[in-house]
Each structure stands twice: as C-alpha cells, then as structure tokens.
Amino acid sequence: MNHELKLLGELPGICKRILHTYGTETIINHIGVAPLPSRDAVARIIDMLYEIVYPGYFGEQRLPPTNVEHHFSNRIHGLYEELVEQIYRALKHECRRMGATCTHCQDRSEEVAIEFLSKLPDLRSMLADDVRAGYDGDPAAKSYDEVIFSYPGLYAITVYRLAHELLLLGVPIIPRIMTEYAHTKTGVDIHPGATIGRSFFIDHGTGVVIGETTVIGNNVKLYQGVTLGALSFPKDAQGHLIRGRKRHPTIEDDVTIYAEATILGGETVIGRGAIIGGNVWVTSSVPPFTVVTLEKPQLRYRTRAETETGHQI
Description:
The chain is α/β, with parallel strands linked by helices.
C-alpha cells in the first residue's frame, strides 16, 4: 500500500517534467497538427503490392484462373484507397512543414495513386528480370519460386523499386518508410533515391548499403556486406551539410562486387564488366573489365599447444 501511495505521489511530478520538455524539445513533437502517414498502413500497402506484383505467391494462393480478374480488381481498389489516404497525409504534412496552405493535397494524392498504379505493369517486367538474375546468379537456387519466396535480396529490391516510383512522383516520407521497413526485415538498406537498372541481384543480402545518389547499371550483382557510400559530407560556411550533391558511386553494367567491399564517393565510377573482390576499399574510379582484389594475406599456422603455452613446440 505504501508503495502505491509513493507512486501516486511521484507520478504527477514525473508527468509534469516530461510535459515541460514538450515545450523545449519541439523537434521531436508532432502535436496538434495533421497526422503523418501511418507506418502500419504503409506496411499493409507493401503487403498488398506484393500480392499484386507476385500473384499466387502471397495472399490468396488457391485462386482459380476464372476468378483472377474479379479478385485482383477488388485488391487494386482497396490498395488505391489505402494509397490515397497515406499519400494525402504525406503531402499535407509537407505543405504544413514548408509553411504553405494545403489546397491541392487531396486531388494530388488521388492523381499520384493512379499514376503509381499505372506503373505496376512495367515494374513487374523489371522485377521478373530481377528474379531471373537471382536464379541465374545463384547455383544454390532450385527455382524461381524459391527466389521469390525466400530471398531477402529480392524482397529489398522489390520494395525499393516500388518506393523509388513513389519518390519520382514527388511523394515525401512514404518511400523512406517503405525501404526502412524492408531494411528491418532483410538487413539490406537501399535508399529510395538510388537509381538501379534491370536484372539486379543481391546474394545473401545482410549488411548491404546503397546510398541515395548511387547509380547502378544493368546486370549488376552484389554480395553481402557491400557498401556503396559517401566518401565525405561537405559542409557550407555555416557548418551545415550540403545536400543535393552526388555523394555515392556509379556502378556501370555487368559489374560484380563481392562480400564486404566498400566503394565510396560521388566521383567514383566502377567501369563496365569490372569485378571488385571481397573486403576491398575503393575510393577512386576503376576502368572497365578490371579485376580489383587484395593481395593474398599470409596465414600463420600454430599448434593448439603452442597457442595455449605461448612457446614454440
């Protein structure tokens, strides 16, 4: 009982101190303004898109061919409604953030949702190439089904391609929510602003980072732990980061980059057909059809007895 009385005595003071920070640490408040997009709703949208992009694999799996049109017509209508609501929230928040009066956000959200859905046929064609690249590039893959069902690299690529289209249509916040959601599920971090060509494959996937201004050509293959990042972060005279510059590398067609390689810098170009070996650190351009590897390290072998005693045997 005394414990309960103590809590009742202390909790109001704790609450008051927390509320005081709402007036001082305002950058982490979002009170009394238009709601932001819902992360849960964005996750639902990804699931709905996945069912439409890969029909029969996800969602309803026993769908007879005679019912396909009716089924997916309903799905697409439901997806449209979800998209409009979340895009509207994102656009309205951006208007408020920029100090503008929101007068067009509802109409624009409907237009963007239609434009985005109209891109799905072409996106399915690109993703089919990615699936083929995954199967052709991995001798352990037993079927296209296995690649679609189980490969984290394909999941991350799929979500990236969808998010990238929304970004190109001027939708704020939501594309980054989408790719960070995929990041949490797969360990693959692809910024939606990156530009990636056809037949892209990420083997294993965990730890891959692809920065915002990265440009990747066609038929490129990455392994786990690859970083395509920025060499430095230039600042202006006031010490603020300069945004909008190309900070990340360009990877031309037919390049393979092996595990844990790090390639940095906006002026760094990896030429067509190059092979970048594992664990290398590249900060300057590589000519086409070049193989970049570390020299073979010298290994030292000792017996367990030598290791444990610290003496030669």
